[in-house]
Every structure is written in structure tokens, then in C-alpha cells.
Write a structure and sequence with these properties.
alpha/beta; 238 residues; 27% strand; six-stranded mixed beta sheet; four-stranded antiparallel beta sheet
């Protein structure tokens, strides 16, 4: 098994005339749940888009599963969930998944598996456009799980979900990691940090901390990750 699922070297990205990422270097270990945490607008989504290979970059290299980000060999090895729903709203949940399963060349048995994985069985025949925001998020996650990808890149996947479902999804993320899948999850909710095996704390396009939750808290001399984040921000500004 490879040591790093993702390697980022000198990544620089400009968006809207602004420098969002400036020479970023980063390694993300394979087979673990890594949380990318930071406030909205700090560059998390830009970094995720660069890893998936859909972001125009100014310079630098991003290697994913030993391949250039966005290259053809990665198309069925990376599952990606954006903040916006990635399903057709005029189709049912099952119809959406059957469509994407055909596109990916997956066995149709995959459809039932992923619907169960995200607990949408009771809404399998519901039209996507009539689902709640949380249900739409789960439908998008189900699409990303088709074909059992080696890497899951999830941009704010638990926004708008109730605490029970959030807990269940984090259990799913860890179960996937236990089976060898690399899971990269972004969030602006600091209380989700403790659910991660590794943390990347980000602000203004810069990684302020990289380590286990315990390591991050110890480095900052804080009792929780939110306090650690604030301490690191203040230290960087000093």
C-alpha cells in the first residue's frame, strides 16, 4: 500500500484575480480519515478541486494515487462530493444511481449497496428535487461511493444533517478507511475535528497545523481543536 495517497508540491492557484493558494506543499496519508478544517473562504474547496483535477492552477504539481491529478486513470478511482448536489433533480434517487452506475460501468447491484450505505432506502423512489437538503447531500455521497473508489474527496458533506445522521456518516467514513479507502473531508465545523484521524487546519490558504487531533492540541497547548485553531491563528499573526 502506498504511503501517501495525495502529494501536493508548490501548488499556486489564483481565482478572481486573487491568490488563493501560494506554493502549498502537502502530503495526505493513504487509508486514513483526514479532516481539512477552516473557516469558509479559506481555500478548502480550491484545494479539493485541485486534488480532484477540476481546478485551473497557476503552478505546482498534484499527484493522486501515484497519478497526475485529474488524469484518465483516476476517473473511476476517485469519488468527489461537492457542496452542491450532484444529482439530477427530475430523476428519483434510484434512477440517478442507475444512470451514474452505467456511466461508471458498475454492476447494478452497486445501486442497492450505496443506497443502504447512506440510509436512503426509504427515499429510493423519491424524486431528487423533492428531497431535503440533507437527503440530497446523501444522494450525492451515494453517487461518489459507486464502484468503491480508492479516494473519497468530500466537501462539507455533513452540512445540514442532524446529529444522528452525522454520526452515522462519520462511522461510514471510518469503516471505509479501515478497508483501505483514503477519505479527505472538509468542514468549517470544529467539533467534527475529533472524528478525524488526522487534521489539516487551514486559514487564508495556509496550513496552520498538520497532525492527529492530540498532536494539534498539544502543539497549541489547548484543550480542544477550536481553541488550538484560535491559538495558532494568533501565533501566526504575531
Amino acid at each position: 500500500m502506498m504511503k501517501n495517497a495525495i502529494e501536493v508540491r508548490g501548488l499556486t492557484v489564483d481565482r478572481g484575480g486573487q491568490r488563493v493558494l501560494d506554493g502549498l506543499d502537502l502530503d495526505i496519508a493513504a487509508g486514513v480519515v483526514t479532516g481539512l478544517l477552516g473557516p469558509s473562504g479559506c481555500g478548502k474547496s480550491t484545494l479539493l478541486r485541485s486534488i480532484v483535477g477540476v481546478q485551473k492552477t497557476r503552478s505546482g504539481e498534484v499527484t493522486v494515487l501515484a497519478e497526475p491529478a485529474g488524469s484518465r486513470p483516476l476517473r473511476d478511482r476517485v469519488g468527489y462530493v461537492t457542496q452542491d448536489a450532484s444529482v439530477y433533480e427530475d430523476l428519483t434517487v434510484t434512477e440517478n444511481l442507475r444512470f451514474f452506475a452505467r456511466v461508471l460501468g458498475c454492476d447494478q447491484a452497486e445501486v442497492s449497496r450505496v443506497i443502504a450505505a447512506v440510509d436512503l432506502g426509504s427515499h429510493a423512489d423519491a424524486v431528487a428535487g423533492e428531497l431535503s437538503g440533507g437527503q440530497l447531500s446523501r444522494a450525492s455521497l451515494a453517487v461518489a461511493l459507486l464502484g468503491s473508489p480508492d479516494l473519497l474527496v468530500l466537501d462539507e458533506p455533513t452540512v445540514g444533517l442532524d446529529p444522528v445522521l452525522r454520526r452515522d456518516l462519520w462511522r461510514l467514513f471510518h469503516s471505509l478507511a479501515d478497508s483501505g479507502v483514503t477519505v479527505l473531508v472538509s468542514s468549517h465545523v470544529m467539533d467534527e475535528a475529533e472524528r478525524c484521524q488526522r487534521l489539516l487546519l487551514m486559514r487564508d490558504g495556509v496550513i496552520l497545523a498538520d497532525g492527529t487531533p492530540a498532536e494539534v492540541k498539544e502543539r497549541a497547548g489547548a484543550e480542544d481543536v477550536e481553541a488550538a485553531f484560535l491559538s495558532l491563528v494568533e501565533g501566526a499573526a504575531a
